[in-house]
Design goal:
Length: 893
């Protein structure tokens, strides 16, 4: 075997490579020559001819390929099979091998770049999985893009959503031309008895078209029939697959069996397929019986299948027109409040189910996209800095015949390798982040179970990785392929490449700071808003308070006397429980789902004909409720045990209602009626309570009227207990007391008021946590970016700083020169960021609470933080600049 290595060293001597680089090239080329020599021998060449032919390729082919270049066509030997797709593949494989070897030689740089990209790619992949699962994934129904819902609205009464009564829904489904079919439903909870312990089951009463409209046939049995809606017809029910398995062991003989839902007998008509739980995680569905004479209450929700080509806007206009038509046909049924129920809103069902989380999710996705751009800018800065140190290598390749396109392709390949590694690490990070996202999401977050890394998300991550590689590699490839051979290879031009790249680096720093400021301002506004929201007085005390809901079976507790007797015994035993400071019952606890409302009339302020009748929150409470919930009474008295059905009707109003209707008078003794019906008796106001934020801290409360429970009993109530110590310790004895009174009465929705308050703020907290984390990440990346650029600047100007120090410049002067450059870059980025934030934060207006989108305190705090970060990131490079040895610099000169 010829001595390839000795010959190669002689030929490379003129290149004056450093020893390590020369050893690497000699080893790689020797392997190439050995392979080429063996190939020529196999073709029949003798040893001497094979040796000469192999060595003839060193200068023009093997050396150029080892250095990552392509010999110009006139000089490149053309071998059979070397062109076309095979040649391109071979060059690509060679570039990949060379790039991988280069990255391995610089593990610190590679690790930093990969982690930076992994952070951005992983975060955006995790958020993209949430956006796809919640917003984009089709509903599990047939042709879901044609499913829509609609409702009426009366904004002048403070009612953004008004459901439909029986007769109005039946009129709509009979006369609609925009919908192929229409169904109605109402959600609720029932108590399932008959096997095992009584169990509260979430369910829905539905019309017979419900499953047909959704396009989901039963797994077993049959759906409902039109005859099932007739008043007096036998009640039918469908079971969910999960309930069928859990309660009946998957026994198919349950079809046709009679079961009890809240002690009402129903016949099981069928079982729905696995996964079907619409609406609201229902596990049972029973037939609604339509009474065409009922125009009240307004309680039905709708779902319909649009005809092909019909938009939701057209459907909404038709529903409004139908409402006008039915009011004209039945004017006696629509007066006062009902006269305002004429406007309609229609939405695709998917959009309605998503609710208020669309804007926060898209906001977080935009923010994480900006963080990825900052990460790309950071990695591009790192690659540009490496291009500076590799300038002589690039010049050497060009001197050996490499084209600028070939060098650019090699550098772009290296960036794609980096992006590939970052994308792989990002996917691993995303697999951890997706469960974390689910854990951070508040209770009731829609479609959360669909958030996962599925095939479309993985394809998105792959494409994103490719785009990221091109983004981070374009600038370094462009700069690295434009090499001035004379300047770089001359001894006196060391560092010129870094000067050339300085503008690119400065541009990246300005970009990072402007985007970081935008994210910090957005996060700061939302955090300030959340802080202001938490400071709102809810009108009650959440400390050491627990609530739990209790629902009585209607068939057994079918009279007001039975309901009053049960809850009276319950309240007596709750007050006697050890550890209870106060106990009360209420129809609807603060921050619980639902808000019972009704029209009301104030004596002397009766609405005139055609004027909307106002609506109030009507809550029935027992004596002791205000002490238990911690709502203070501002005037008058609380309810007493004597306020029973035999006593004169009384009421307590809240402070907001009192100020509105009796601004200069004492409301005690004034009269209200909790209905516009003249047959309903007037109630005398005996007290004024503080205004309570029942629907949420950010919700505008309606007027509130409290009634004594004994004068208006309800079958479902919340027990509210104020504990002397740990409130959760009261839940087990509460369950035991209820079970002792009636084992068929379940206790559910038991939680502390502190937890209920936290859940009501869940979506805001979720959004704020994510944005704050992204803003902090952006700030860290920006700090790393300016530190890196300042360090490169100090390295490139080291000789200049040495000469200045030698000529008498003070260290403070040199230090200030370095830090001033960092402050200038940060200042430009800050100005651009402030302008961008001022333009874009207006889109946050609907997410803010008592904070303006141009809040000066937030903008000022963010600018101060960025200034401090800039000073900190510039300080270390500035100190290093002052430690340049002037003697060493002068010797080099």
């Amino acid at each position: 075997m010829p001595d390839w290595r000795g010959e190669l060293r002689r030929r490379l001597a003129a290149l004056r490579l450093d020893a390590a680089r020369e050893d690497e090239i000699v080893e790689e080329m020797a392997q190439h020559l050995e392979a080429r020599y063996a190939e020529l021998l196999a073709r029949g060449s003798d040893a001497e001819e094979a040796r000469a032919a192999a060595l003839a390729e060193v200068d023009a082919d093997a050396l150029a390929r080892e250095l990552g270049a392509v010999v110009p066509p006139a000089e490149q030997p053309i071998e059979p099979g070397s062109g076309g797709m095979l040649g391109l593949t071979a060059r690509l494989a060679q570039d990949v091998r060379f790039g991988a070897r280069t990255l391995r030689k610089h593990p610190g740089f590679t690790l930093l770049a990969v982690l930076t990209l992994a952070l951005g790619i992983g975060a955006i992949t995790a958020i993209a999985s949430a956006v796809r699962g919640v917003l984009l994934r089709p509903l599990p129904f047939a042709d879901p893009d044609r499913l829509a819902t609609f409702w009426l609205t009366a904004p002048e009464k403070g009612l953004p959503v008004v459901a439909l009564p029986n007769a109005v829904f039946d009129f709509d489904r009979t006369h609609s031309r925009a919908f192929e079919a229409m169904a109605a439903y109402t959600t609720g909870n029932v108590i399932l008895t008959g096997t095992d312990d009584p169990e509260r089951v979430a369910g829905a009463g539905v019309t017979h078209e419900f499953f047909t409209v959704l396009g989901v046939p039963p797994l077993l049995g049959q759906g409902f029939l039109a005859a099932n809606e007739t008043p007096g017809a036998p009640r039918m029910a469908m079971l969910s697959y999960a309930l069928w398995q859990r309660r009946y062991g998957g026994d198919s003989s349950v079809i046709g069996r009679t079961i009890a839902l809240s002690e009402s007998p129903v016949t099981v008509a069928g079982v729905m397929p696995p996964g079907f739980d619409f609406p609201s995680h229902s596990e049972a569905w029973w037939t609604i019986q339509i009474d065409l004479t009922r125009f009240n209450p307004w309680y039905l929700s709708t779902v319909g299948r649009l005809r092909t080509g019909v938009t939701t806007e057209e459907a909404g206009r038709e529903v409004a027109s139908l409402m006008d038509d039915i009011k004209a046909r039945h004017p006696e049924r629509f007066s006062g409040a009902d006269a305002g129920h004429s406007r309609a809103v229609a939405k695709l069902l998917r959009e309605d189910l998503v609710g208020d989380v669309r804007t926060p999710l898209l906001l977080v996705l935009s923010a994480v996209g900006l963080v990825l751009l900052i990460a790309c800018a950071n990695v591009a800065t790192l690659l540009l800095s490496r291009a500076t140190s590799r300038a002589r290598e690039m010049a050497l390749r060009c001197s050996l015949g490499a084209s600028t396109r070939r060098i650019g392709a090699q550098l772009l390949t290296e960036s794609l390798l980096l992006a590939g590694l970052g994308g792989t690490a990002g996917l691993l990070l995303a697999t951890w982040m997706v469960p974390v996202l689910r854990g951070l999401a508040p209770a009731g977050f829609p479609r959360l179970e669909l958030v996962r890394l599925d095939t479309p998300v993985l394809l998105f991550a792959t494409g994103l990785t490719l785009v990221t590689g091109i983004l981070v590699g374009s600038a370094p490839a462009l700069r690295g392929s434009r090499v001035n051979l004379t300047d770089v290879l001359s001894d006196g031009a060391r560092g010129s490449a870094s000067v050339t790249n300085r503008r690119w680096n400065d541009g990246f720093v300005v970009f990072q700071f402007s985007v970081s400021l935008l994210l910090l301002v957005g996060a700061g506004l939302l955090l300030r808003s959340f802080q202001r929201l938490r400071a709102v007085d809810p009108g009650f005390r959440v400390e050491r308070v627990v609530r739990a809901r209790i629902s009585l079976p209607g068939r057994r507790y079918d009279t007001t006397g039975k309901m009053i007797a049960f809850y009276g015994q319950l309240l007596e035993q709750l007050n006697a429980m050890p550890g209870v400071a106060a106990a009360g019952l209420t129809q609807q606890a603060p921050l619980a789902r639902g808000n019972p409302q009704n029209e009301f009339v104030v004596e002397g302020r009766e609405p005139s004909a055609g004027e909307p009748v106002p609506v109030a929150d009507i809550r029935n409470v027992t004596p002791g409720y205000f002490a238990a919930i911690g709502t203070p009474l501002l005037l008058g008295r609380a309810f007493e045990a004597s306020d029973d059905s035999a006593a004169p009707p009384v009421a307590i109003v809240d402070a907001a209602m009192a100020r509105h209707y009796w601004p200069s008078l004492d409301p005690i003794g004034k009269r209200v009626r909790d209905s516009q019906d003249p047959s309903v008796p007037w109630r005398t106001v005996v007290g004024v309570a503080a205004t309570v934020k029942h629907a949420g801290l950010d919700a505008r409360p309606s007027p509130q009227i409290y009634l004594p429970y004994a004068q208006r009993p309800q079958w479902s109530m919340y027990a509210v207990l104020r504990a002397r110590a740990d409130p959760t310790s009261l839940i087990p004895p509460l369950r035991r007391i209820v079970s002792a009174l009636d084992p068929n009465v379940p206790v559910y929705d038991a939680t502390t008021m502190e937890n209920a308050l936290g859940q009501s703020l869940g979506t805001r907290r979720f959004t704020d946590i994510l944005l704050a984390g992204l803003a902090a990440t952006a700030l860290l990346l920006a700090a790393i970016g300016i530190y890196g650029v300042m360090s490169l600047n100090v390295t490139a100007r080291g000789r200049e700083f040495g000469i200045r120090l030698a000529l008498g410049a003070s260290p403070g002067t040199v230090r200030w020169q370095v830090m001033r450059r960092g402050l200038v870059l940060a200042g430009i980025g800050t100005l651009l960021g402030v302008a961008g934030a001022a333009a874009l934060t207006r889109f946050l207006r609907n997410l803010l609470f008592e904070v303006g989108p141009l809040d000066p305190l937030t903008f000022g705090a963010v600018v101060a933080v960025l200034a401090a970060v800039t000073l900190a990131a510039s300080w270390v490079p500035a100190r290093r600049a002052t430690r340049t040895d002037p003697i060493v610099t002068l010797r080099q000169e």
